Amino acid sequence: MGILSDRSKYAVNPIREEDVLAAQLAEQGKNVIKLNTGDPAKYFKTPKYIIDAYVRALREGKTSYGSISGLKELREAVVERYKRMYGLNADAGDVIVTQGLSEAIAFIDGALINPGDSAILFRPFYPIYMPQLFFYGGKPLFGDYIEEKGWDIDTDSLGKAVKGAKKGRIKYMLVISPNNPTGTMLSRKTLTEIVDFANEHDIFLISDEIYDEITFNNAKFTSITEVAKGVPYMVMNGASKDYDATGFRLGFMLVPGTDKISQKVKSKMVEFAAMRLSANTPAQYAFAEGLRNVREHEKSVKAMVKSISDRINFAAKLINESEYMHVVKPNGAFYLFPKVDFSKLNLRNDKEFTSGLLKEKYVQITRGSGFGKEGYIRIVGLPPKDILEYSINKINEFCREHKKR
Ligand code: PLP
């Protein structure tokens, strides 16, 4: 018997799988362009009013463990945000603060999944949901975002996804909107159909809305909180994207229902949170200020989203001029998810594409198969236009050099 557990094989993150090689190349003096991690704080400074609040908390000695579910004033600020933005009536007791939304994902599977249970995920999805599900012996049932429908979900295919699954063993259905990797969002109609489906099949609904304020190109975002009336659900969000503070490692779960299922989930989440004592205390003070100071927040998020939309639109245009790729124009988040025309290339799959691109052109992107969608690549569209242009040119050059002859 080896030292490692069998399930440890699931510990993978395709977004960072080439990080070691990228670092080695950079050490050798290569100009490595990293378009693999969706980190706005690398390109846009975390707003000063939030930084000031963080420093103030440190200076005031707010460095002890905090309360299990999170700082009360932060949870109250979360509730106020959802009231202001989506008209939701919730209570600070409905909020559990986590160390990044990533920690919430681990809590969810730990709390809900028995070996053999399943969860409905829609492909392509943010990759971390899969390993966490596998750790607990769960299995995914797949629905699909449909490229031809602008990456909206085909709710008719949902019946097929759950066919044969035992009632009560589908523990949750997850939606991500705006979605990573496609940068697109679900329509109100689709979300409503998803809610109806969850209702009909007694499935707990989980909505990851970490990009809910990063929307553009006149798209209208709908939150699950606006349409999930009467269905047990959880919405998740955090400091990383809208508040441009990835390194704070703060997220939250909001479970507003008063029904039995919501109550059970909520109290179990608090027990999970208790096992790691508390989230980062000074960062919670800073995030609370980020949420409460609506005027400052709106100023900074507006400026950031304006730059992001300019960059994404610019990159989408360049990609769609390429002979080798095509992308659905995003209207949220900050990713581009082009389909690669492998019929023109001497490359077998997206993994060969992304690792070849890094080795030969020093541009690091992520393979679509890491998001459950083979044949695509994900490009982070956050850097300034000259870097995006340089990188897309390099991708085209790489394709030309690997063209079928
Ligand atoms: N959910 C989605 C859809 C994401 O894209 C990301 C990060 O890129 C996360 C969750 C993780 O967020 P956090 O930084 O709060 O752990």
Structural features, described:
- The structure is a single chain.
- Helix 5 links the parallel strand 3 (118-123) and strand 4.
- It contains 13 helices and 15 strands.
- Helix 3 (72-86) packs parallel to helix 10 (281-292).
- The longest helix is centred in the C-terminal third of the chain and has 27 residues, at 294-320.
- It folds into two domains: 6-45 and 297-401, Aspartate Aminotransferase, domain 1, CATH 3.90.1150.10; 48-293, Aspartate Aminotransferase, domain 2, CATH 3.40.640.10.
- The strands form four sheets. Strands 2-9-8-7-6-3-4-5 form an eight-stranded mixed β-sheet, sandwiched between helices. Strands 11-15-14 form a three-stranded antiparallel β-sheet.
- Helices cover 40% and strands 14% of the residues.
- The chain is of the alpha/beta class.
- The chain has helices at 19-27, 48-59, 72-86, 100-112, 129-135, 158-162, 188-200, 224-227, 260-275, 281-292, 294-320, 350-361, 385-401; strands at 33-34, 95-98, 118-123, 139-146, 152-153, 170-176, 204-208, 233-238, 251-254, 325-326, 335-336, 339-340, 363-364, 366-367, 377-380.
- The structure holds pyridoxal-5'-phosphate (PLP).
- Pyridoxal-5'-phosphate (PLP) binds next to helix 4.
- What radius of gyration results from the CA coordinates? 21 Å
Elements, N to C (H/E) = HEHHEHEHEEHEHEHEEHHHEEEHEEEH
The largest pleated sheet is described as:
8 strands, mixed
State mean pLDDT (0 to 100 scale).
Answer: 96
Which percent bin holds the helix content? 40-55%
Beta-sheet strand percentage?
A: 5-15%
Give the strand order of the largest sheet, numbering strands 1, 2, ... along the chain: 2-9-8-7-6-3-4-5
Helices, by number, come to 13
| Reported CATH architecture of the largest domain | 3-Layer(aba) Sandwich
Bound molecules: pyridoxal-5'-phosphate
